[in-house]
Amino acid sequence: MKHILLITTGGTIASLPTDTGLSPKINAEELLREVPEIRTLCEVSAVALYRLDSTNMRPENWLRVARFIRENYDAYDGFVITHGTDTMAYASAMLFYLIQNSPKPIVMTGSQISISERDTDARDNLLQAFRYVVEPEACGVHIVFDGKVIAGTRARKNKTKSFDAFSSVDYPEVAVIRGDRVRHFIKPPYHGPVIFYDDLDPSVMVVKLIPGMSADIFDFVASHCHAVIIESFGVGGLPYYDSNEFADKIEMLIARGVRIVITTQVPHEGSDMSVYRVGLKIKQKYELPEAYDMTTEAVVAKVMWALPLTRTAAQFRKLFRTPIGSDIL
To answer: CB-based contacts of 179: which residues, under 8 Å, 6+ apart?
Structure first.
């Protein structure tokens, strides 16, 4: 029987009502007691690293989770992490880059309603996470939610209340769970040895363009950030309007050593800056990397991971453009 470590961080799944709204109060052992079937699947140990609403989770918290897994990696056959849903897609992407090529599964789950409630999705999601983590083919970083197993860099929360809150963006679900059966569609290519990283640079900003927006926002970026991810329109590009103010600001950012990535604010099918003049011209002149079909959550995580590993803009571009697992197709 496999030995699995449950790591809890808070979130709705572990919340109780208070005078000021829901707050994570339920500990790891209490979560396990709500789903006794888990102990028929595996030996399980449990530890609470945090009791945080996921809105309050930050890169330093995800680094601690990754380090904790590293410290305990040899002692367990897999890991289940409970986490709030609001930033779970960022969390899974962060862990995907911090723990690469893992032959052991690292599974994240949570819920839309607290496990303390009767009509909740929490018990099913937690049980399904354990059903998947004990599978012989399970490996790498994934989210398990509402019967779907989603690759760590492909998940996005697209519903605020419904139980089917997460989808896999432009990539098939790795597996589905129906009752006590797991049906695999994709076998992730993680065969070890596992590679751990222990640094992120959180000085990253996402700027979502809107029509008529002033390029002056990039003055703030230059003073406060090491990288900026620009969510452009459609397949990607920067507006020219009646001047070259956006191009001038790009030059200024580059001169100050700020790394730039262009992505799209459209949810599906990704960017392609070569299609239109507004994208091709700026990409060719400044050699800007684009995100193609990556999710914004994955782009943020990859940029934070890549910054400490690179010294020059060329090194950053090369590392960002290198596909890791299923992050760029």
So the answer is: none
